[in-house]
């Protein structure tokens, strides 16, 4: 292991936080579960598979944009930058930026899945042996502090939020996240954000309901995790995955649909489901370029540049903190 790989800063949500979120979500008239809890080790593995599916255009489209424009992004960022990646995952996209940047000072990957985070950090340290890497296991939707790395004096700090994950937030939540990121990263910082664009539902729905059933397994794995970690008794074959396009709100919704009237136990609590009742597990909002720029401006950023693919499927935005 490289000496440049620092000890993990572990702020992983506790089992009790998970339990409280599950109980609160299932007690609502429209049952829901926070999508951030998708990402245990198995959920992270399944999401990597989703990213390789033919129906799932966001990953390959964003990768192509980063490959084509990494040099331009690096020039806008400048030398000796510290990169903070929110939801770092497998660390594939950050490599394109790191290779293009002029003497990057440090990399701070932030992810909720500890096992996945550590494996990706070790791999990156092997390929970038002189880069200071300071992994943080945390829920990045909650406040946290950046670690002080000995000997690291960055000229700028840049947030990296790829993969259209900004779309998992409602518009007020997205503005709040961007505003918190601006405060965390500091004056003069920048953000590079991947944003999925509005398009025909015949492209959108299959991206979240693939023919191979990988997204269905990803969605159902949340129930597997509840059974394992919270002493639940969900019968997986009594719930089905469903992806819906909500045109009014401009979002894809993922649901788990109860196949019959049933009762589920989680620890000492019991929750009733009617046949056809759903658990709303994820939103993925789609934006126009102007919609996202306006949101970023409201959050205190100045839109500096944007890159899109020829088909207008996806966008990568460069924002500067005012």
UniProtKB/TrEMBL annotation:
Keywords: Methyltransferase, Transferase. Residues 18-320 form the Histidine-specific methyltransferase SAM-dependent domain. The keyword Ion transport does not apply. This is Dimethylhistidine N-methyltransferase. GO terms for biological process: methylation. One of its GO terms (molecular function) is methyltransferase activity. Coiled coil: none annotated. Pfam families: Methyltransf_33. It comes from Aliidongia dinghuensis. SUPFAM superfamilies: S-adenosyl-L-methionine-dependent methyltransferases (SSF53335). It comes from the Bacteria.
């Amino acid at each position: 292991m490289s000496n440049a790989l620092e000890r993990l800063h572990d702020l992983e949500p506790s089992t009790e936080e998970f339990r409280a979120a599950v109980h609160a979500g299932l007690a609502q008239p429209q049952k829901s579960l926070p999508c951030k809890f998708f990402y245990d080790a198995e959920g992270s593995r399944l999401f990597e598979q989703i990213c390789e599916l033919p129906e799932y255009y966001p990953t390959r489209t964003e990768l192509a944009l980063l490959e084509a424009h990494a040099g331009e992004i690096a020039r806008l960022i400048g030398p000796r930058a510290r990169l903070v990646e929110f939801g770092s995952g497998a660390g594939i996209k950050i490599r394109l930026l790191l290779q293009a940047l002029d003497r990057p000072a440090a990399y701070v990957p932030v992810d909720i899945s500890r096992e996945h985070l550590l494996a990706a950090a070790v791999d990156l340290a092997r390929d970038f042996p002189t880069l200071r890497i300071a992994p943080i296991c945390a829920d990045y939707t909650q406040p946290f502090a950046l670690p002080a790395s000995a000997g690291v004096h960055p000229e700028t700090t840049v947030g990296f939020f790829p993969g259209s994950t900004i779309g998992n937030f409602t518009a007020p939540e997205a503005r709040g996240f961007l505003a918190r990121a601006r405060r965390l990263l500091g004056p003069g910082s920048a953000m590079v954000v991947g944003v999925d664009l509005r398009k025909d539902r015949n492209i959108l729905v299959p991206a979240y309901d693939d023919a191979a059933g990988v997204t269905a397994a990803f969605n159902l794995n949340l129930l597997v995790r509840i059974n394992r970690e919270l002493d639940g008794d969900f019968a997986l074959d009594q719930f089905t995955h469903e992806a819906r396009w909500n045109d009014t709100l401009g979002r894809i919704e993922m649901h788990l649909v109860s196949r019959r009237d049933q009762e589920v136990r989680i620890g000492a609590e019991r929750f009733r489901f009617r046949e056809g009742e759903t658990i709303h597990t994820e939103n993925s909002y789609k934006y126009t370029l102007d919609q996202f720029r306006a949101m970023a401006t409201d959050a205190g950023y100045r839109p500096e540049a944007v890159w899109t693919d020829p088909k207008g499927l996806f966008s990568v935005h460069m924002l500067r903190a005012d």
